[in-house]
């Protein structure tokens, strides 16, 4: 029951969204004959101070997820081939594949891999196959409300729940220039 | 009072309740057809104005219409709601209890037997079983339970000592089976007693029937029409009274029987009776509650300003001393209102912020008094393929309601992702007084914190049971419902599922101090459908070890299913609240498993 | 109210209305009676099984079948009898009583009815 300070992070809340979206785009770029995602969801940023303890005061956790349709989730390409491919890619990239519960018979289960920058990639297989990207706890950006619109990974989704849920500014509503996800903190236009 | 003995539960063919319900249903339809003859044939044809006109002709036609309307109202309120719906619901509950009893009988046959009265049944070790224990002819399961190994039986001393332990173990099993039997009979008695109370209530305050044509007609007709105009309001008041006036199915059937105009009129005149009435559809309850909340915020605000002005005035003119009692009363009223207003605005802000996931929020009930209560659904539960009802735990109140709704939104988003072809709704149910204090860690909380007592959980039972019944009643078609609890919320869910035949298919508990039962089979969903998890290092372990809230639901002996949850967070309290959190390489095992359970994908989990 | 009205009336139509009303009365009574028997049988079986719902169902059934449904059919019959009288002679609603049906209506059309309901006609 320690009171360790939270580990240092390379990016903050404002930078997280483009970073996670880029991670999603990079992940699916490696997947052949990609059929497109059906849904995109953002979760409300989680107040790490409330859920994990006072040493996380001023920290938030960001999560975005993409899901395939039921029909596409049933394709062997998606539920088996992609799974095996991602396992291989993540292992070769040196990510910490800290969970592999994929059942060899049914194909159901999860692959979870943490990148060196702390982003967690969670590939889940059941009736729905999904890719979830989590930042874990990162410093909140003062006065940050919500991210500007970023095109969904794969170009389009059937239902953009994140947009519908008002968790991002609508497209064309940006008051800043397009965000370069590879910019360092000091160059990020939305840094405080 | 139900005097049903377990033998009665075993032997009775409760199918007769369903057949009778169907007969009442057919009767109601046939009687409505007769009533329609009065309006279609009598009023509109034979006695139409071209065939029959005089000063009294209008009254006569009106009387025919009154009779037709009156009998249809009677059929709806009495035959359909009080009688038919009650018969149907009771059939379902008693048949389920009977099935549980038959399962239990199968388990005990040969080794245990039932004894006792209808109110105090119990299970004992059978004579045959005692004899077989004496001969050391017992099952491997019992040996394991007793901690007896084959090698213990080699010597006479060892064999004798083992017999003692085997007897102890068998008697302990009998004790557990007793609790299961008692729970089954409790639920059967509840179903029986509730049905009886509703049926008896039919005679309480019956509406008037129209007066007959004759000498007294002119005197009585105006009074009748006045009372009749308020008939729907009067029945709604009965239904919302909290007394046993109807099942949730009955409420739903009655609401459906009203015309759009009648429904709109009731919403207009008595929204406060509709907002929290179980059985009313979610898409009716929600806008009603939203409006009630808005009105409350406005009215509270106005009254608060008024009182503050009055207090300032009294201070200024010295009457705060000369009329000290009045001054103090106003201060107290102000304090209460400010508390209510804080709760109301917190709830309003949370609702305005939305689910965050693009799903609509439905406000199914709320109360701003004290710590505040609310039931908020992420997604519409009435047309969902899967519904989860999530009961949060200690310190939950309206001040923190947006965090609770976020939790429900996470659960809903996960379920939608893991079963994309199905609709899932997750209801955050805080319609009970959650304890204010967490576990008695030395640094926090008074000596006997509320969470250590079972009172609040026990008080929540009938409300939670009624809410679940309401969800089922207003659902289109078959529902698939999971009752979930976190922390002290699990004590409430466990207590409810032991006491009542709940309208839920399965139970999930996480971070539970116990479900107030010794084994999962005491719960009405059956041990097979109970899913429990607790992360290592969760501070709730302290409470679990005391056994104050019942047996450890993650222990093998509990007899339910368990699943993994990683410890997410630094320290016991953080872990206790961290089950739905995401942090770095903490795997999301619990979220995944819960989403699979909620959406019925349990095949690979057992 | 004033004396007997001058009215337009198709007597045959009124008689048809009366027959329909008496038909509704009889059919509703018949259906209710059948349901009552079935319900009492189930109520008894449940009471024998020590279920509280047994007696309560009997109470509810009595209320419906005896008070409510019978109340309805009596009112339907009452309306029919009033019209049967009106078909022969105008009568104000508040002047009407059961005795009128027995004395003024064309009883040939409604055989046995006047006698059947004699107990409801204390002034006959």
Keywords:
heterotrimer; A: 192 residues; alpha+beta; globular; B: 606 residues; alpha/beta; two-stranded antiparallel ribbon; 11 strands
Detailed description of the structure:
The complex is a heterotrimer of chains A (192), B (606) and C (124). Chain A has helices at residues 13-29, 48-52, 70-73, 76-92, 161-164, and strands spanning 37-42, 46-47, 59-67, 96-100, 109-114, 120-125, 129-139, 157-160. With 192 residues, chain A is α+β, with helices and mostly antiparallel strands. In chain A, strands 1, 2, 3, 4, 5, 6, 7 and 8 form an 8-stranded mixed beta sheet that branches. The longest helix of chain A is centred in the first third of the chain and has 17 residues, at 13-29. Chain B has 606 residues and is an alpha/beta fold. Chain B has 20 helices and 11 strands. Chain C is mostly helical. Chain C is elongated, with a radius of gyration of 19 Å. In chain C, 40% of the residues are buried. Residues 1-5 of chain C have low confidence and may be disordered. At the B-C interface, helix 2, strand 1, helix 3 and helix 6 of B face strand 1, helix 1 and helix 2 of C. Strand 1 of chain B pairs antiparallel with strand 1 (8-9) of chain C.
Give me the number of helical elements of chain B.
20
Widest sheet: strand ordering of chain B = 4-5-7-6-8-9-10-11
- Relative helix content of chain B: 55-70%
Which outline of chain A best applies? globular
Average pLDDT rating of chain A: 88
Low-confidence stretches of chain B: none
Strand content of chain A: 25-35%
Secondary structure: number of strands of chain A = 8
**N-to-C span of chain A:** 34 Å
Which stretches of chain A are low in confidence, meaning pLDDT under 50 for 5 or more residues running?
183-192
**Percent of sequence in beta strands of chain B:** 5-15%
Shape of chain B: globular
Q: What is the CA-based Rg of chain A, rounded?
A: 17 Å
Query: What class do helices, strands and sheet pairing of chain A give?
Result: alpha+beta
Summarize the structure.
Chain A is built from 5 helices and 8 strands. With 192 residues, chain A is an alpha+beta fold.
Layout of helices and strands:
The complex is a heterotrimer of chains A (192), B (606) and C (124).
Chain A: H1 13-29, E1 37-42, E2 46-47, H2 48-52, E3 59-67, H3 70-73, H4 76-92, E4 96-100, E5 109-114, E6 120-125, E7 129-139, E8 157-160, H5 161-164
Chain B: H1 6-11, H2 15-46, E1 52-53, H3 57-108, E2 112-116, E3 121-125, H4 127-134, H5 140-146, H6 156-200, H7 217-229, H8 231-239, H9 248-257, H10 260-269, H11 271-274, H12 282-317, H13 319-322, H14 324-353, E4 361-367, E5 373-378, E6 386-391, H15 401-418, E7 424-430, H16 455-473, E8 481-486, H17 488-499, E9 506-510, E10 530-533, H18 541-546, E11 561-562, H19 572-577, H20 589-598
Parallel strand pairs in B: 6-7, 6-8, 8-9, 9-10, 10-11
Antiparallel strand pairs in B: 2-3, 4-5, 5-7
Helix pairs in contact in B: 2-3, 3-6, 3-9, 5-6, 9-16, 12-14, 15-20, 16-17
Chain C: E1 8-9, H1 11-48, H2 52-86, H3 98-104, H4 113-116
Helix pairs in contact in C: 1-2, 2-3
């Amino acid at each position: 029951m320690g009171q360790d300070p939270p580990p240092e992070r390379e990016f903050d809340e404002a930078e997280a969204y483009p970073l996670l979206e880029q991670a999603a785009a990079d992940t699916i770029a490696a997947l052949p004959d990609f059929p497109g995602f059906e849904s995109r969801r953002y979760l409300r940023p989680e107040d790490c101070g409330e859920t994990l303890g006072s040493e996380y005061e001023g920290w938030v956790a960001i999560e975005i997820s993409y899901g395939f349709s039921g029909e596409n989730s049933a394709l062997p390409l998606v539920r088996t081939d992609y799974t095996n491919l991602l396992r291989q890619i993540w292992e070769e990239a040196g990510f910490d594949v800290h969970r592999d519960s994929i059942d060899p018979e049914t194909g159901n289960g999860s692959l979870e891999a943490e990148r060196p920058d702390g982003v967690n990639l969670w590939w889940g297989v059941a009736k729905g196959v999904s890719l979830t990207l989590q930042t874990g706890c990162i410093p909140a950006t003062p006065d940050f409300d919500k991210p500007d619109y970023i095109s969904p990974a794969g170009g389009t989704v059937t239902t953009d729940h994140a947009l519908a849920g008002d968790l991002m500014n609508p497209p064309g509503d940006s008051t800043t220039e397009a965000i370069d996800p590879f910019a360092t903190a000091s160059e990020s236009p939305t840094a405080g | 009072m139900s005097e049903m003995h377990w033998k009665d539960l075993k032997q009775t063919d409760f199918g007769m309740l369903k057949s009778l319900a169907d007969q009442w249903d057919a009767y109601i339809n046939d009687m409505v057809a007769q009533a329609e003859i009065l309006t279609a044939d009598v009023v509109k044809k034979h006695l139409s104005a071209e065939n029959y006109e005089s000063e009294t002709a209008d009254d006569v036609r009106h009387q025919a219409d009154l009779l037709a309307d009156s009998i249809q109202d009677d059929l709806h309120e009495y035959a359909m709601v009080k009688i038919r719906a009650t018969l149907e619901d009771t059939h379902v509950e008693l048949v389920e209890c009977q099935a549980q009893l038959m399962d239990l009988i199968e388990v005990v046959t040969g080794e245990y037997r039932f004894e006792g009265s209808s109110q105090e049944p119990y299970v004992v070790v059978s004579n045959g079983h005692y004899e077989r224990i004496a001969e050391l002819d017992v099952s491997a399961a019992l040996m394991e339970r007793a901690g007896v190994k084959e090698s213990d039986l080699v010597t006479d001393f060892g064999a004798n000592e083992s017999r003692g332990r085997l007897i102890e173990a068998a008697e302990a099993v009998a004790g557990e089976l007793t609790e299961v039997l008692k729970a089954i009979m409790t639920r059967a008695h509840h179903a029986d007693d509730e049905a009886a109370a509703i049926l008896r209530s039919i005679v309480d305050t019956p509406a008037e029937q129209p007066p007959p044509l004759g000498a007294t007609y002119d005197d009585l007709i105006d009074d009748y029409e006045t009372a009749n105009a308020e008939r729907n309001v009067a029945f709604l008041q009965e239904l919302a009274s909290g007394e046993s006036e109807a099942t949730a199915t009955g409420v739903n059937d009655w609401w459906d029987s009203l015309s759009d105009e009648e429904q709109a009129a009731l919403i207009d005149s008595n929204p406060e009776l509709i907002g929290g009435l179980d059985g009313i559809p979610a898409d009716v309850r929600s806008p009603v509650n939203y409006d009630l909340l808005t009105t409350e915020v406005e009215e509270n605000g106005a009254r608060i300003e008024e009182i503050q002005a009055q207090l300032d005035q009294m201070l200024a003119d010295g009457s705060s001393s000369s009329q000290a009692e009045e001054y103090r009363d106003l201060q107290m009223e102000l304090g209460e209102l400010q508390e209510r207003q804080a709760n109301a605005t917190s709830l309003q802000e949370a609702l305005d912020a939305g689910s965050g996931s693009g799903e609509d929020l439905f406000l199914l009930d709320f109360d701003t008094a004290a710590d505040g209560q609310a039931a908020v659904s992420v997604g519409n539960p009435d047309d969902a393929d899967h519904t989860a009802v999530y009961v949060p735990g200690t310190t939950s109140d309206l001040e923190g309601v947006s965090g609770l709704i976020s939790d429900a939104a996470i659960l809903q988003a996960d379920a939608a992702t893991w079963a994309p072809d199905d609709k899932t709704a997750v209801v955050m149910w805080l319609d009970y007084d959650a304890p204010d204090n967490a576990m008695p860690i030395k640094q926090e909380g008074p000596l006997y914190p509320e969470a250590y007592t079972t009172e609040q959980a026990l008080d929540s039972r009938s409300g939670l049971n009624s809410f679940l019944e309401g969800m089922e009643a207003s659902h289109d078609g078959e529902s698939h419902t999971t009752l979930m609890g976190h922390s002290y919320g699990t004590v409430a869910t466990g207590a409810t599922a032991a006491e009542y035949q709940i309208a839920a298919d399965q139970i999930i508990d996480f971070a539970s101090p116990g479900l107030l039962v010794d084994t999962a089979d005491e719960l009405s969903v059956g041990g097979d459908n109970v899913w429990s998890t607790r992360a290592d290092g969760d501070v709730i372990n302290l409470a679990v070890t005391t056994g104050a809230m019942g047996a450890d639901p993650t222990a093998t002996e509990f007899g339910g299913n368990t699943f993994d949850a990683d410890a997410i967070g630094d320290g016991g309290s953080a872990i206790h609240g961290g089950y739905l959190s995401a942090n770095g390489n903490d795997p999301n095992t619990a979220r995944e498993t819960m989403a699979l359970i909620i959406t019925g994908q349990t095949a690979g989990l057992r | 109210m004033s004396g007997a009205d001058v009215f337009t009336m198709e007597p045959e139509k009124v008689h048809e209305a009366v027959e329909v009303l008496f038909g509704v009365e009889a059919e509703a009574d018949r259906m209710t009676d059948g349901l009552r028997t079935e319900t009492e049988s189930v109520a008894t079986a449940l009471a024998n099984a020590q279920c509280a719902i047994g007696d309560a169902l009997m109470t509810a059934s009595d209320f419906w079948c005896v008070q409510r449904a019978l109340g309805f059919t009596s009112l339907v019959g009452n309306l029919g009898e009033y019209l049967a009288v009106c078909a022969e002679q105008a009568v104000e609603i508040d002047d009407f009583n059961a005795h009128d049906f027995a004395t003024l209506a064309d009883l040939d059309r409604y055989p046995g009815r006047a006698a059947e309901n004699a107990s409801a006609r204390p002034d006959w």
